[in-house]
Design a protein that fits this description.
- The structure is a single chain.
- The chain has about 190 residues and is an alpha+beta fold.
- It has four helices and eight strands.
- The chain has a five-stranded antiparallel sheet, with helices on both faces.
- The termini are far apart.
- The protein binds zinc ion.
Length: about 190
């Protein structure tokens, strides 16, 4: 596993919609290596997830994994999940005001709306289709990663630019209020 360089905002690969992975391609050593490298890169950077365009590969592959995350200590654990060609479907109309950062956007985080629940339909890294439903902050993570596959960044969804903070100021001045705001989601999370 190799830790790869993470594309930073301004790099065009982050703005190009990624393409679906073909079945044969998924089984190739090149793509299996890419998936291993994405996992290693995400772990090395302490991310909650990573999408292939973030390591300069315009393919519809993302990885989500949260375990005692130092960048997002309030996030509930989410098992290592590789999604290939994922499709998200909102579960109902309910949304919440999340606060997000991104490995491709240094320094800043901000508030934006996410669906409270989504159904994820995808292939796993062996090409086997699966469906899972996720809620709360985990659903936010999946929406953030799939946005990357469509060439979108969380910046594009920020409604109030006054919510931008550095990570340091977020922790100092906004984390407590944010934790109260998302507390009701924790009840849903386990569902
Ligand atoms: Zn991101």
């Amino acid at each position: 596993m190799t830790v790869r360089a993470i594309a930073q905002v301004g790099h065009p690969v982050l703005r190009r919609p990624a393409r679906d992975v073909e079945p044969d391609e998924l089984h190739s050593p090149r793509v299996q290596q890419l998936i291993d490298d994405m996992i290693a890169t995400k772990r090395a950077a302490d991310g909650a997830g990573i999408a292939a365009p973030q390591v300069h590969e315009p393919l519809r592959i993302a990885v989500v994994e949260v375990r005692d995350n130092r960048r997002y200590p309030y996030k509930p654990d989410a098992p290592l999940t590789v999604v290939v060609n994922p499709v998200l479907e909102p579960l109902g109309d309910e949304t919440y005001l999340n606060n997000e950062g991104c490995l491709s956007v240094p320094s800043l985080r901000a508030d934006l709306r996410r669906h409270v629940g989504v159904r994820v339909s995808a292939l796993d890294r062996d090409g086997t289709p699966f469906v899972k439903e996720v809620r709360g902050l985990t659903a936010g993570t999946y929406q953030h990663e799939v946005d990357h596959l469509d060439g979108l960044l969380f910046l594009d969804r920020v409604e109030d630019s006054r919510s931008f903070t550095t990570w340091e100021e977020f922790e100092r001045r906004h984390l407590a209020e944010f934790t109260r705001r998302i507390a009701p989601l924790g009840i849903e999370e386990g569902a």
